[in-house]
Amino acid sequence: MYKLSFILKVAAAFALLAFVAGVITPLLAMGPEHVGTLLFAAGGFGAPFRALPKQAVEAAATPSSGHAQEAIWFQLFDTQTYVSAATTRLVFFNAANADRTLTNMEQAGALPRPQSLQLHNICMDILSLVPVSTAAGGIAGVLNDMALLLLASASRPTWTLSISQKSYGPYSLTLLHGTGGPAGFGWGTFTAEESIQYARNEPGPGWNYFGRVIIPEQVNFNLEMTWAAAQTLTGDTRLRCSLFGVLNRRVL
What we know:
Number of strands: 10
Distance between the termini: 72 Å
Shape: extended
Structural class: alpha+beta
Number of helices: 4
Radius of gyration: 26 Å
Order of helices and strands: HHHEEEEHEEEEEE
Largest sheet: 4 strands, antiparallel
């Protein structure tokens, strides 16, 4: 029994040494900022961070010059209206709009100086006229509208990103996923046949350039969606295109 206990203690000691050598030592070598990134990501929260030293925090909070740069995660979005039975082409980011719920573009067709966007995700939301549609039977409704906009074989929708006359695409519109929306269920009492539909463009990261494509300041860009044939929907429908990435801009 004594020999077995001694062997177990030795094995536990070796296991501890292996853990220190394989995990703790590499973490310490990485530095505290990378340790924070790794541990936060490992926790499953989905957004890594870097712990900054006090001097860096103070420098960022009180920049010595208004021309100093900051880099932040950013959503650049624009909204256009698909006119039922008429639209075959929509161009996003081509104009500014005073309504900030429709776009946050500061100027038409370009980023103002001194801003640039390291592009990561491209997403597209379909803003339905009503969240849940009801009809006396038939297939017309929110879900059918989205299917027509994304999957109808007659329309074969595509999108193309253009930066300074250089094109990325065309690619299938189904590659652009949504940014989110409610998920749930409902019920009711009906005295006649009813068609009830709820739908959203599938949430996901969408198309991703991982920061390898950059939109510079004062350079014309847009994103164009095209359909081979106009689709008849239950009504005119707004589409919102979002470019997610790292925006570099002045601190002040």
